[in-house]
UniProtKB/TrEMBL annotation:
UniProt GO cellular component terms: mitochondrial inner membrane
UniProt xrefs under InterPro entries: MCP_dom_sf, MCP_transmembrane, SLC25A3/Pic2/Mir1-like
Entry membrane topology: Multi-pass membrane protein
Gene3D superfamilies, A to Z: Mitochondrial carrier domain
Name by which UniProt lists this protein: Mitochondrial carrier domain-containing protein
Record Pfam families: Mito_carr
Entry keyword annotation includes Amino-acid biosynthesis: no
Alphabetized UniProt keyword annotations: Membrane, Mitochondrion, Mitochondrion inner membrane, Repeat, Transmembrane, Transmembrane helix, Transport
GO BP terms, alphabetized: copper ion transmembrane transport; mitochondrial phosphate ion transmembrane transport
Gene Ontology MF annotations: phosphate transmembrane transporter activity
Places the protein is found: Mitochondrion inner membrane
Function according to Swiss-Prot or TrEMBL: Transport of phosphate groups from the cytosol to the mitochondrial matrix.
Length: 382
């Protein structure tokens, strides 16, 4: 007698256990599968149920913490001193945490910009660094990155909110709405001009730490003391002009394109921005930020290469024009785009996460998210 083609119910029961029994109140249709034979379905349902419970619990915890923080801070009026302070703190979190998290990407990008022949590819670079310098080697430059970009983020987001409101008031409601892109561009350029004054010393230390093997400084304080002792305070600002050249166009693109993409997304969704919950709004922020980050990376990349080269190769007493011409003569136009693919990944991810963190913090403090429809209390400034 031939063995049956399929295992018996007893065999399945002993192997997988009993699945959920059909409810006696409902009868199966002729084509409906027997759930007791497919216990994997119940496992999937259990996982979904647990995930929903965890999500709901996390949401409750977030709302409880948010309510507590808002009660301590008191009511935050839009465009008040408290509002700009909250935006400043949110920007510090957004930029400091994200830039520090992608230090391994930044390390390889910087080294490949300084010497394009050093590594054949990004993964080969990380393998080589791990093998020769260990795990700590992958995070060379994390401390000046954390300090520098925390300060830069605080200045950038805080001043952007301030300049956007101030320029809108100067222009008037109609002109501010009609020329809103120009408003975003001018506000972000003004904010980044100030933010780079805070970033530049730490960027100089970071680039020198990452661009030399072994790293010439043991940390941020060692870098500060060494550079100022040998070159004075001006040594920390050698890269200020190319930093402005990199960061100002980058930030103009970052803020203007983000605001525009957010508006486009909400314009194509049913209903208004206010109809969507916190999760959906932060999702829009991340998507818009990632797309804006790709544009930022392309626009600012040649200046980024020059910043890396200048901080590593500028000779004592050499003028800015002279060193720029010398570096361009060495690498040519094509060399200005070295490391662009990894920077697109890095900046896209960074920018998306920054906007998500920034808008999440604004929600946490009871403030409206950035972009899209203006808050009802301030329609005249939209």
């Amino acid at each position: 007698m031939m063995a049956p083609l399929y295992p018996s119910f007893d065999t399945l029961h002993k192997t997988f256990g009993a699945g959920p029994s059909p409810s006696p109140a409902t009868s199966r249709t002729p084509l409906e599968a027997r759930l007791d034979l497919y216990s994997a379905y119940s496992i999937a349902d259990d996982a979904k149920s647990k995930a929903k419970k965890l999500s709901a619990e996390a949401q409750r915890e977030f709302e409880a913490a948010s309510a507590k923080a808002q009660s301590k801070a008191g009511k935050i009026e839009l465009y008040s001193g408290k509002y700009y302070a909250a935006c400043t703190f949110g920007g510090m979190l957004a930029c400091g945490l994200t830039h520090t998290a992608v230090t391994p990407l930044d390390l390889v990008k910087t080294r490949r910009q300084v010497d394009s022949k050093l590594y054949s590819g990004n993964f080969q670079a990380w393998r080589h660094i791990l093998r020769t310098e260990g795990v700590r080697g992958i995070f060379v430059g994390w401390s000046p990155t954390l300090f520098g970009y925390s300060a830069q983020g605080a200045f950038k987001y805080g001043w952007y909110e301030y300049f956007k409101k101030t320029y809108a008031d100067i222009a008037g409601p109609e002109a501010a709405h009609k020329y809103k892109t120009a408003l975003y561009l001018s506000a972000s350029a003004s904010a980044e001009f100030l933010a780079d004054l805070a970033l530049c010393p730490f960027e100089a230390i970071k680039v020198r730490m990452q661009g030399t093997i072994p790293s010439q400084y043991s940390g941020t304080l060692n870098g500060l003391s060494t550079i100022t002792a040998a070159e004075g305070v001006s040594g920390l600002y050698k890269g200020l002009y190319p930093l402005w050249g990199r960061q100002i166009p980058y930030t103009m693109m970052k803020f203007a394109s983000f605001e525009t993409i957010v508006e486009m997304i909400y314009a194509r969704l049913p209903g208004k921005k206010s109809d969507y919950g916190k999760g959906a709004q932060t999702g829009v922020a991340f998507t818009s930020g990632y797309l804006a980050g790709i544009l930022c990376a392309i626009v600012s990349h040649p200046a980024d290469v020059m910043v890396s080269k200048l901080n590593a190769y500028r000779k004592a007493g050499e003028g800015f024009g002279a060193v720029t011409s010398r570096i361009y003569g060495d690498i040519g136009f094509r060399g200005l785009w070295n490391g662009l693919p990894v920077r697109i990944v890095m900046i896209g991810t960074l920018t998306g996460l920054q906007w998500m963190i920034y808008d999440s913090f604004k929600i946490f403090m009871g403030l409206p998210t950035t972009g899209g429809a203006a808050p009802p209390e301030d329609k005249e400034h939209s």
